Structures are given as structure tokens and as C-alpha cells.
Amino acid sequence: MKDVSELNCLRLAALPSAVSTARRHAEFLLARWGMASLADTTALIVSGLVTNAVKAVGVVDEAPSWSDLRERLTTICLCLYCCPSGVVVEVWDSESRPPKRKEADERDESGCGIQLVEALSKQWGYRWPKTGGKWVWCELTIQDARSLSSITDSGGELLDERLILTIPKEDVCTN
Ligand SMILES: Nc1ncnc2c1ncn2[C@@H]1O[C@H](COP(=O)(O)OP(=O)(O)O)[C@@H](O)[C@H]1O
Ligand SMILES: [Mg+2]
């Protein structure tokens, strides 16, 4: 996917709460970019990739102690690119082990995140930056959009625009 017209990166503490924040952030951006037809699918994919990143490197205990947080808390990064043909989602975490697509059947309660990413996106993959960790990415095109439901009005759901920074990727995520 070429011709990136806008790039937005967000660094998040690797905690379970990152998932809903990331999803709402993606919904907000897609609405702003006029890509409402991709918003639901993108939010679903962002949820799956951020959940995986948090599981890989995050503190997932329900009630972590302060010392746990001090010693183990790390960050992950979500980047969204807007292109004329759609969007690219990238999630970075510090673990170099890549995702592994599982063969989950309909009775499995887990193991279908990557299957879903594969089914809903044009293509997906991962890459290892020189600075460590990995980016898991996927590309969604308007043409292939299989929107779960059309977005109508996300006004009440939006994060406060003042909290959203559109900053160059290198200023947020050095990886
Ligand atoms: N960011 C990641 N870092 C390391 N391993 C990952 C990551 N994402 C996924 N994986 C691996 O790929 C497997 C499949 O992921 P997924 O399809 O989302 O299923 P689930 O998360 O339910 O196990 C995970 O069980 C995990 O072993
Ligand atoms: Mg998963």
C-alpha cells in the first residue's frame, strides 16, 4: 500500500486497558479520515492485535501490585496509516517471537485472532525492526471492506480530540 496520507502512532502501557483505548482511538481516526466503511473491521483487528501484544509482553494480572508494575510494565505501540485505498494497522511489542496462526474450530474460545485478521484483511504479516521486538501489520482496503455493520454516528464514543496527537512515528515509537 503506497501513498500514505496520514500516519498516527500511539504508545500505550501494555495493560489489558490498552485494548479498549486502542479500539476507540482507531474508531476515532477512521471517522476523521472519512473511512467509516472500514471502521468496525479496523477496530476489531486493532483489538485482536493489541490483545496479542499485551498477552505477549504485558502485565495481565487482574490486580497487579505496584512492585509488579514498576518491574514489569512496558509499552506497546499502535500505528495507523491512512492511504487512498484504505488503512494499514501496525502493532509493535518488544517480544521478537512472531504470531502463529492457529487452526481453531468453532468450539474454541481462543486461538482465532490471527485467523480473523487473515479473513478480514487484504494481507497481514510481521517484521523485525533492527531496534528490537516486532511489528505485526495488516492492510485493509476499502474495496475489500467487509464491514460488520455500517458506522452511523460515533460522536458520543469519540475520544476527546485534544487528547489525540498526530505525531511523526519516530517521535513516539523508535522501533
Ligand atoms: N504479538 C505476539 N507476540 C508473540 N506471540 C504472538 C503474538 N500474537 C500472537 N502470538 C502467538 O500466536 C498465537 C495465535 O494468536 P491468536 O490467533 O490471536 O490466538 P490467541 O491469542 O487466542 O491464542 C498465540 O497463541 C500466540 O502464541
Ligand atoms: Mg489473540
Task: Explain what this protein looks like in three dimensions.
The protein has a 5-stranded antiparallel β-sheet with strand order 1-2-3-5-4. The chain has 175 residues and is of the alpha+beta class. It has helices at residues 17-32, 36-57, 66-72, 113-120, 169-172, and strands at 6-13, 75-83, 86-93, 123-127, 134-141. The chain is 33% helix and 22% strand. The chain has 5 helices and 5 strands; from the N terminus they run βαααββαββα. Residues 48, 51-52, 113 line the site of magnesium ion (MG). Adenosine-5'-diphosphate binds at residues 48, 52-53, 56, 93, 95, 97, 99-100, 102, 110-115, 136. It comes from Actinoallomurus oryzae.
CATH class: Alpha Beta
CATH superfamily: Histidine kinase-like ATPase, C-terminal domain
H/E series, N to C? EHHHEEHEEH
Envelope shape: globular
Identify low-pLDDT runs. 146-168
Please estimate the helix content.
25-40%
CATH T-level topology: Heat Shock Protein 90
The average pLDDT score comes to 83
For the report, how would you describe the main beta sheet?
5 strands, antiparallel
Distance between the termini: 20 Å
Ligands bound here? Answer: adenosine-5'-diphosphate, magnesium ion
In total, how many domains does the architecture comprise?
Answer: 1
Cα gyration radius (Å): 16 Å
Distinct helical segment count: 5
State the strand order across the main sheet: 1-2-3-5-4
- Counting DSSP E segments of at least 2 residues, the number of strands comes to 5
